[in-house]
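To fix ideas, we reproduce below a protein record of this kind.
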Amino acid sequence: MQTYWQNYIDGAWVDGGAGRIEVVNPGTGETLAEQALADAADVDRAVQAARRVHLSGALADLRPVERGRMVQAMGRYLLDHIDEIAPVLTLEQGKPLWEARIEIEGAARYFEYYGNQAETVEGRSIPLGKGYFDFTTYEPFGVSAQIIPWNYPVEMTARSLSAALATGNACVIKTPELTPLSNAWFAHAAEAVGLPHGAVNILCGLGAEAGAALSGHPDVNQIVFTGSVPTGIAIATAAARNVVPCVLELGGKSAAIVHDDADLAAFENDVRWGIYFNAGQVCSAMSRVIVHDSVHDALVDRMVGVAQSLSVMPGIEQPEFGPTMGAMVSEAQRDRAVAMIAEAQAQGATVATGGRVPNIPGAFLEPTILTDVTPDMTIANEEVFGPVLSVLKFSDDAAAIKIANGTPYGLVGGVFTRDLDRATAAARQLRAGQVFVNEWYAGGVETPFGGYGKSGYGREKGREALWNYVQTKNVAIKLKG
């Protein structure tokens, strides 16, 4: 592990105008490394480098298949270096080493998918009658600013970077302050595949300085952000002053509705992945289970069994897939979750399991399940972003939908039942951008993802994401004769 990491601007590794920031290993609480910290001047240099690439046509003028091959090659670069990247990702973020490898493989899949899509972004002709030839074409916005969250720093960067490059944009990436190190490999990948200097710029900076400078920069043409609602509002406000479009993915309080005919044994796996993967630090986590009162106790017993089967330990000690969970990203994030658990208890919730901080160094929290949760409680409405599952009861289908839709969020939802008619009705009624039926996280890179309400707007993943990165131009030609 190198002790100091620089930013990457216009093809060069550089120090930061704002000095350095410590990166802490949440698995031990000890300092892992130092990262260069960008200031507004660094942001401007990165934006100008990206703008130069855009104006030169070095990306946009390529035949799309050529651009797509470079994008695909970036994914292969990540896979070729997974043994180097995964330990760094684990040490800076806290997740198990086997989870880090899954994240890197997911990141590579984005480059594969969008590299393949590069030559499919096609316009159409529009009939205007004799004497006219009219057609549409799609052009890149130009400079894409991408502000990355700390929970999946590799995969979330890949998600936006791959689609942006595939459509011919140049990119400025602001990495998260808590987990900035693993993003360095995107710079290495860009160089390895032959992208021009300035096409990919990667810098770490504080949100109040570098983030604000990037989101309000007049030469940025499009912004992608994943994170909290308050920060998303601030970014959208700054972007609006320059009339710049945004894609905002702002988290959720997603619910799984479990009916009395659901396969409860199969649901145990959904609990394992839905709330305890990455210690629950997932925007689309299954943070609420709304269960029919007739199977409530049986399901709680099963879910408690899942939670208690997980071993909590430093991620670097977990190389192999198994019933393990790592640290949360920081002690501050862990303490916030602990405070929310305490508040829920004060409001009448019961801790069925977990809720405690293990007596080991690091930002750890036991896998937690809360029962006796009611829709009016804070824990049922605000995002914990930790390994904390809230269980609520319902007695009829309409009540379940009302509870599920009862928060300002609308990212994903789920329904578990053997009745296809009931599942289809629920899918139509759930206020969410994506609905899972009988499997949490069903879908993949190919399926569009994004929210309703305060979960944001715009779509990531799937072909829908490509339209975030292009503008439609219409050309109307008057013919002679």
Notes: The chain has a mean pLDDT of 97. The two ends are 71 Å apart (CA to CA).
